[in-house]
Design goal:
- By secondary structure, this protein is α+β, with helices and mostly antiparallel strands.
- It has two domains: about 50-205, no CATH class; about 205-245, no CATH class.
- The chain has five helices and twelve strands.
- It has helices spanning about 5-75, 85-95, 100, 155-160, 165-175; strands at about 80, 110-115, 120, 125, 130, 140, 145-150, 195-200, 205-210, 225, 235, 240-245.
- A hairpin with an 8-residue loop joins strand 10 and strand 11.
- It is elongated and about 120 Å long.
- The protein starts with a helix and ends in a 6-residue tail after the last strand.
Amino acid sequence: MRIPQTFQRAGPRGGRSIRREAAGALVWVMAMLATISILAAVLMPNQIRSLSEADREREAEALQRLKEGLREYILNTRSVPAASTVFTNLANTLGWEIGMVRTNHRGNPRVYLVDPNFRLGTTTASNLPFVQGVYGVTNISNLRLALVSSLGEPLPAILTNPGTNAALVFSMLWHAPEGAEPAGWTWGGNWGDIRVARLDLEPLLTRVRLINSTNNAAGVVGRFSVDNTNNPVELPTNDFRALYLVRSDLG
């Protein structure tokens, strides 16, 4: 039986056509893969940057909450915590788990810093905590606290162990713009990953003046108490002046 000419030619030409189509499909796939690779190379850094910015904003918000919690703790308890208890104090004030206070969402520890020149009455940075007494305080200086966190590399050693330069280091950190490296500092990490929440306690103090009444009988001295926590005490002078944390109740 003789096979028609059209069918005789179909086999070889059909095979070449299939091979050409397969080759074309392979070229198309390779072109698509190349395009995807190029897009990934272009878009991934932007995506990473976006994620980093989201992380930074998240940590900035967390530090703001912690700062507000620290402020509330100080005003409610009339005390300023030491580094050994501050995270527990904050956890109790905010109702957070202690781990959420001690570390950020990247698992890096947060640091509580006190200005080395801090003075609130007779309390200094080295003998915190401060607890407000009935007679308040009369001398203050450098009432600055900071909460510091890194989303990248561990915090610079100069922050956690500043040595004899502690006052200068704290001052430079306090005044440095957000995400900017303080002048003269060197660190292997990205300063954009560091977030700082600063709390100045001076606005939390108010001046009080108590004057012994001239209508009192001779030898009678005015008395007062603070937050109803003590029996009324005599005014130490006829014109008594001191600083107290706001929300204190003198009567």
